[in-house]
TrEMBL record:
PANTHER family: THYMIDINE PHOSPHORYLASE. One of its GO terms (biological process) is pyrimidine nucleoside metabolic process. InterPro entries: Glycosyl_Trfase_fam3, Glycosyl_Trfase_fam3_N_dom, Glycosyl_Trfase_fam3_N_dom_sf, Nuc_phospho_transferase, PYNP-like_C_sf, PYNP_C, Pyrmidine_PPas_bac/euk, Pyrmidine_PPase_CS. This is Pyrimidine-nucleoside phosphorylase. Catalyzes phosphorolysis of the pyrimidine nucleosides uridine, thymidine and 2'-deoxyuridine with the formation of the corresponding pyrimidine base and ribose-1-phosphate. It comes from Lachnobacterium bovis DSM 14045. NCBIfam families: PRK05820.1, PRK06078.1, Y_phosphoryl. It comes from the Bacteria. The keyword Glycosyltransferase applies. It catalyses: uridine + phosphate = alpha-D-ribose 1-phosphate + uracil; thymidine + phosphate = 2-deoxy-alpha-D-ribose 1-phosphate + thymine; 2'-deoxyuridine + phosphate = 2-deoxy-alpha-D-ribose 1-phosphate + uracil. One of its GO terms (cellular component) is cytosol. Its EC number is 2.4.2.2. Homodimer.
Length: 434
């Protein structure tokens, strides 16, 4: 079997056999197949797509490229959560300790930033000493002891996806339904949870730009989960503007801490609570959304969710004092304001442009080896539906390089659309697929 023939077959829009997909995954993982051939196949898949059978085969091959964790000895229904990626999406930082504080064991495997979107691992590494590069033994121990663990993809857990994830990020092969579905679900199936809750983003700042594509992705992932005998549900959430008010790494961590203290942005809290209710229901901790919401309110009010976050940070080597004293985080050197040139209501904020502006500042990766500046970011002073006067502040830039800030300023200004007509804030929950 030759990789050349597999590339040609997919280039000609023929269905790949199970054995061919296994051959590709195994040999790319062990280094026999080089990046340039893998890139060619990925691009052919982007042009011609994959059948449901191919997608399932790819998912299972990536899952089986390493260890599959057995968490059956841990009491309770283990629940995992994953987002397809968005701008300002710091949901896992609040959601996982919130539901863990309510007795739901959370076993989560996360990734770094992908394209214009941020990554959970990058944000968590804002805590001095924090690591997601923990062993499988530590991963399991932390779930059993404190009810939560978030790991990066170690060498033994879905290593094929780890390599392909990084390659897709820099070869313009990110936003293809089968590649996204198989990437996400291979990690979810390898991490050993009993139930999976998916946050499928839709809109300008998501990889799926329209609701139909987002629905298709959600259905594909739910189908894969159910074929693997996992309780799986997908929540479709809006990404036509950034989630919350902060975009960046440290600034998003601070916003997450604010939310755990009961002070977060309303749109962000709404997404957290919707996903949290699905996790609590899957774990048999609540029978209705209303009951789940009340439980989460209590966990925020009595600080058990915040304390669980501190326990989690400490368990993975981080300095948990930053959870209680977020002012200890390092700040960027410069602050630059983006001002409106007219009165009006914010009709739209192009989320992808905001994500790209953050990348310009150094907050994201241009290549696989790019080093992220954790301190830079953007604060959205105005969001969709809010009124701004001429010379009022639309957004605030946190930068360490004034040239980069200048470029980002123009992109952010152009990302805002104003209108004289009053605008309603959008619904952030677009649907649930189970």
């Amino acid at each position: 079997m030759r990789m050349y023939d597999i590339i040609m077959k997919k280039k000609e829009n023929e269905e790949l056999a199970t054995e061919e997909i296994k051959f590709f995954v195994e040999n790319y993982t062990n280094g026999t197949i080089p990046d340039y051939q893998a890139s060619a196949l990925l691009m052919a898949i982007c042009f011609n797509g994959m059948s449901k059978k191919e997608t399932l085969d790819l998912t299972l091959a990536m899952r089986d490229s390493g260890d599959v964790l057995d968490l059956s000895y841990i009491d309770g229904i283990k629940v995992d959560k994953h987002s397809t990626g968005g701008v300002g999406d710091k949901t896992s930082l609040v959601l996982t300790p919130l539901v863990a504080s309510l007795g739901v064991p959370v076993a989560k495997m996360s990734g770094r930033g992908l394209g214009h979107t941020g990554g959970t691992i990058d944000k968590l590494e804002s805590f001095p000493g924090f690591t997601t590069g923990i062993s499988e033994e530590t991963f399991k121990e932390n779930i059993q002891k404190i009810g939560i663990a978030i790991a990066g993809q170690t060498a033994n857990l879905a290593p094929a996806d780890k390599k392909l994830y990084a390659l897709r990020d820099v070869t313009a092969t990110v936003n293809q339904v089968s590649l996204i579905a198989s990437s996400i679900m291979s990690k979810k199936l390898a991490s050993g949870s009993d139930a999976i809750v998916l946050d499928v983003k839709t809109g300008d700042g998501a990889f799926m730009k329209n609701l139909e594509d987002s629905n298709n992705l959600a259905k594909e992932m739910v189908a894969i989960g159910k074929l693997a005998n996992k309780h799986t549900v997908a929540v479709i959430t809006d990404m036509n503007q950034p989630l919350g008010r902060n975009v960046g790494n440290i600034v998003e961590v601070k916003e997450a801490i604010d939310t755990l203290n009961g002070n977060g942005p309303s749109d962000f809290k709404e997404v957290v609570y919707e996903l949290g209710s699905q996790m609590l229901i899957a774990a048999n901790k609540a029978t209705t959304k209303e009951k789940a919401f009340r439980l989460m309110d209590e966990a925020i009010e009595n600080k058990s969710a915040l304390n669980k976050f501190a326990d989690f940070v400490k368990a993975q080597g981080g300095d948990e004092s930053y959870v209680y004293e977020p002012d200890k985080f390092q700040n960027a050197k410069y602050t630059v304001e983006v001002k409106a040139t007219q009165n009006g209501y914010v009709r739209n904020i192009f989320a992808e442009s905001i994500g790209n502006a953050c990348m310009m500042l150094g907050g994201g990766r241009e290549t696989k080896d790019s080093v992220i500046d954790l301190t830079v970011g953007i604060y959205l002073n105005k969001k969709v539906g809010e009124y701004v006067e001429k010379d009022g502040i639309l957004a605030t830039i946190y930068a360490n390089d004034m040239d980069k800030a200048g470029m980002a300023k123009k992109v952010i200004f152009d990302a805002y659309e104003l209108t004289e007509q009053k605008v309603l804030a959008p619904n952030v929950i677009k649907g649930v697929i189970d």
